[in-house]
Amino acid sequence: MNEMVKGSNVALASLSENVGSVIVSLGWGSPTGEGDADVSVLLLDVNGKVRSDTDFYFYNNPVAADGSVQLLGKTPTAGGNEDRISFDLTAVPADVDRIVVAASRYNAARFGELDDVHLSLADGAGDDLLRFPIDDVDSMSAIIFGELYRRGEEWKFRAVGQGYDTGLAGLAADFGVDIEDDAEAVEAQDDAAADDQEVMTAPAPADEPGPRSTPEAVPSPRRPAEADESRKPATRPRTAKKKVTLPKVAKKTLAENESWREARLFPVSALKSDRDREMRATSVLLSVMAQVPEFGRRLTAAFGAPAGRMETFAEVTLPHGDSPRRPDGVIRVERAGKLWTALVETKTNGNALKADQVQAYMDIAARRGYEAVITLSNDVALEGSPLVDVKIDRRRKHKVALWHLSWAEVTHQAQMLIRHEGVGNAAHAWLLQELLHYLQHDNSGCHGFQNMGPAWVPVRNGIDDETLCHGDARALEVVESWERLVRQVCLGLGGELGQKVLPVQRAKRGTDPGERRGRLADQLCQDGRLDAELRIDGTPGVLAVSADLRTGKLRTSIDVPAPEQGYPLSWAKRLVRRLAEAPADLHIETLVEGETGGPRGTLERLRPEPADLLPKDSGTRITGFRLTLLKGMGSGRGNAETGFIRSVDEAVHRFHKSVVIHLDRPAPRRAPTREPATTN
């Protein structure tokens, strides 16, 4: 892998033959696990300016209509998070000369507060081609990480590393984009999940005669409660079409009684065997992917597939020695006369993938010039720990990528589209709704991670009788299963909320996944506890989850920082008022500076006397409040009602619904002021 330095450049074709589509990842870590930044992409013409406002892609405008750019969102890594962006370079319009990849921080934060700021680029097969570490970022609030640019018929990459201390506005001003800095508009933009207007304006085309004037910015739609007749019409066309999502309230049924069941496109009552479930699940998923372009593109973009016409096939017979093989499905995407092909192997109902099957499909794909093999199962892949070990013949010129999808991730992506972001028309919305109903049905077998593994009971018993020793391989198996469970809980909660929910990986715990899991296994042997942290967009802190196998208790908690202004008694009263609908057994602890802990009590006891949260010494500085709920832990290794997996999922959802949702939102992201850009 090429290690780039600032100012260097390289032709992509010299690194790989599979660069029609590439994945660019922007990564960083945080000592606290809470640092973050927003990525953005700008398409520039030969004059170095955006052609229009639609050439700016960010968290509220993540996908190009032609599929050339797609922001794939954040992926947890051992050292923090990576924001991935898919580029289909064959779909980039001919009048786009450069593609700038940048990131910016908000609320006066700087990149100097983050660790290991870097960019990496992978080809369509998922092989890493280059890495660009960026240093000297202390005062930077926005950075151009790098740019893809044309030279004749080929694409090249340049490591830029240019920083701005004026944030996104300073960066955008260089390329002809103006950022609306009205605080209310920014807050509304963050709150509106189905926002169909941007808060940016762009210059007139460079070849347009006469002086350029910047049109008035259009704020994001107001919240329903704030809408009134005085709202002015937009001064420029909308930048996105109206999307269709599920209604918030279900329509009144016309059924004569509750025994009448609604007719479904994908029935599940006839499924009797695992083979039936696998065949039905594959056919249902692939057919919806082909018919709903937004959904199909979302699932395949991360695998290097181009944007184009997609066709899907089930039960295809392919030659393989003396015995032909029949992969569960095939995905083909056509773009500019070229085909991208992936074989699909599916497992349902907790069945494990078979290494010999996947190996055979990898060999077939290599011989036939296919690009990828995609496996689907209830299991969740972990970083640095493949579900299936396959041998790759390095002598072959053609590379085949092996990718994995969990059914939980498929459900998450469908939920995000149909419930929050929307799709192009009502028919697509209905198809996704039927797919969701099928995946979530008890008989479909597509329920995601459902078993803590055979090591769960021996480890739990070993903790109970204090016979579990350090170095026991079974403890490491339980830690890996716990990590899979946490990732699945994040997918489920994120799909329901329409927000990013990611597991937090603390930089101080190391960057090597194997070493980090080894330390967690040692902690499990010593303390009998499994710990995890979840970061949820729009919440004031990190949601912590702890499973104590000795006491059989699940602890969910969140630390709420103290307000910057006001009086401690006012803080306590406001917090108790905000938690009026929270469970009475919620524990509240006051966090104080320089001490292990302050006053604490249950919400039931504190409701009449919020002042009991204040330290007796009035000079003690309050740094925040810790809110905690305790719940009994399931003992079984499976997903039954008495199982551990079900109890963890219910504990996290209950804590968010009954506690976190009532807390004050963090300060909105303010757009930087419009000041002349200065570079470092």
Characteristics of this structure?
680 residues, alpha+beta, 7-stranded antiparallel beta sheet, 6-stranded mixed beta sheet, 13 helices, 25% strand, globular
Helical segment count: 13
Describe the global form. globular
Order of strands across the main sheet: 20-21-22-23-26-24-25
Radius of gyration: 26 Å
Helical content band: 10-25%
Strand content: 15-25%
Please summarize the sheet with the most strands.
Answer: 7 strands, antiparallel
Question: How far do the termini sit from each other?
Answer: 28 Å
- Average pLDDT, to the nearest integer? 83
Fold blueprint:
Blueprint: E1 2-3, E2 9-11, E3 21-29, E4 38-44, E5 56-57, E6 69-77, E7 80-88, E8 98-104, E9 115-122, E10 128-133, E11 142-151, E12 154-164, H1 167-173, E13 178-179, H2 183-191, E14 200-201, H3 274-291, H4 293-301, E15 309-314, E16 329-335, E17 338-346, H5 355-368, E18 372-377, E19 401-406, H6 407-421, H7 426-439, H8 456-464, H9 473-497, E20 501-503, H10 513-527, E21 529-536, E22 542-548, E23 553-561, H11 568-578, E24 587-592, E25 600-602, H12 603-606, E26 622-632, H13 644-658
Parallel strand pairs: 1-10, 17-18, 18-19
Antiparallel strand pairs: 2-12, 3-7, 3-9, 4-5, 4-8, 6-7, 8-11, 9-10, 11-12, 13-14, 15-16, 16-17, 20-21, 21-22, 22-23, 23-26, 24-25, 24-26
Helix pairs in contact: 3-4, 3-7, 4-6, 6-7, 6-9, 9-10
What does this structure look like?
The chain starts with a strand and ends in a 22-residue tail after the last helix. The longest helix is centred in the C-terminal third of the chain and has 25 residues, at 473-497. Residues 181-240 and 668-680 have low confidence and may be disordered. 42% of the residues are buried. The chain has a 7-stranded antiparallel β-sheet with strand order 20-21-22-23-26-24-25. Strands 1-10-9-3-7-6 form a 6-stranded mixed β-sheet, with no helix packed on it. It is 24% helix and 25% strand. The chain contains 13 helices and 26 strands. It has helices spanning 167-173, 183-191, 274-291, 293-301, 355-368, 407-421, 426-439, 456-464, 473-497, 513-527, 568-578, 603-606, 644-658; strands at 2-3, 9-11, 21-29, 38-44, 56-57, 69-77, 80-88, 98-104, 115-122, 128-133, 142-151, 154-164, 178-179, 200-201, 309-314, 329-335, 338-346, 372-377, 401-406, 501-503, 529-536, 542-548, 553-561, 587-592, 600-602, 622-632. It is globular and about 75 Å long. A hairpin with a 5-residue loop joins strand 9 and strand 10. With 680 residues, it is α+β, with helices and mostly antiparallel strands. Helix 6 (407-421) packs antiparallel against helix 7.
